[in-house]
Design a protein that fits this description.
α2 packs across α10 and α3 runs parallel beside α4. Strands 5-4-3-2-1-9 form a six-stranded parallel beta sheet, sandwiched between helices. Strands 6-7-8 form a three-stranded parallel beta sheet. The chain is built from ten helices and nine strands. It is an alpha/beta fold. β2, α3 and β3 form a beta-alpha-beta unit. The protein has a single domain, classed as Aldolase class I (TIM Barrel, Alpha-Beta Barrel), CATH 3.20.20.70. The radius of gyration is 16 Å and the shape is globular.
Length: about 210
């Protein structure tokens, strides 16, 4: 695991998850969350503009950590990496994808929702996973229960995260960051900045500015 990217995600505590339909909005959107105190973003590969959006953000904000989400294939992972992504995230656990990303030396955070999937991830050398969809899979209480069994695994809950429950998820010792799209439910960049600032304040209140690695 790339400690630089992992540490950055931990310090931010929240990684904004963006579905960018128009590449022209990529740069102002990234600028808005940067102004809000968050210097990482996950751009999902749900739209044909994803790779170009990552490229534009990387060119304009080289200091920003960029991830690519909804990665389903090794080809998508390599496309994202070429565009400027430092890590990729998958909604589920795919052993072929793990192997392909390992071969290409692209950090991957695969999705899990059950103890069986966590064990399978560990058996394949993965110790940082995305708990998805967090709310629908059981929320904070479920994650507390399952993570207690796997103290050496770090979790990134994503799905249904908002300002109301962010602190609860961050209170779980095995959670290294959360994924959330709540700041993008508006087209108002000033509002995006305000929501990002609010999230950053919650993170600051819940943990010290320190790093830990898997």
């Amino acid at each position: 695991m790339d400690k630089t990217y992992f540490g950055t995600l931990y310090v931010n505590g929240i990684v904004p998850v963006a579905v960018i339909k128009d590449e022209k909005t990529a740069v102002p959107l990234a600028a808005a969350i940067l102004e809000g105190g968050i210097d990482c973003i996950e751009v999902t590969f749900r739209t044909p503009t994803a790779a170009k959006s990552i490229e534009l953000i990387h060119e304009n904000f080289p200091e920003m950590l960029i991830g690519a989400g909804t990665i389903l294939t090794g080809e998508q992972a390599e496309t994202a990496a070429r565009a400027g992504a430092s890590f990729v995230v998958s909604p589920g656990l795919s052993l072929p994808l793990i192997k392909e990303c390992n071969a290409a030396k692209i950090p991957l955070i695969p999705g899990v929702a059950t103890a069986t999937e966590v064990i399978t991830a560990m058996e394949n050398g993965v110790t940082a996973v995305k708990f998805f969809p967090a709310k629908q899979a059981g929320g904070v209480n479920y994650l507390k229960a399952i993570s207690a069994v796997f103290p050496d695994v770090k979790f990134m809950p994503t799905g249904g995260i908002d300002l109301e429950n962010l602190a609860d998820y961050l209170s779980i010792s095995t959670v290294f960051c959360c994924g959330g799209s709540f700041m993008f439910k508006t087209d108002d960049y000033k509002k995006i900045t305000e929501l990002s600032k609010a999230a950053a304040l919650i993170v600051k209140s819940k943990r010290e500015k320190r790093y830990f690695y898997v």
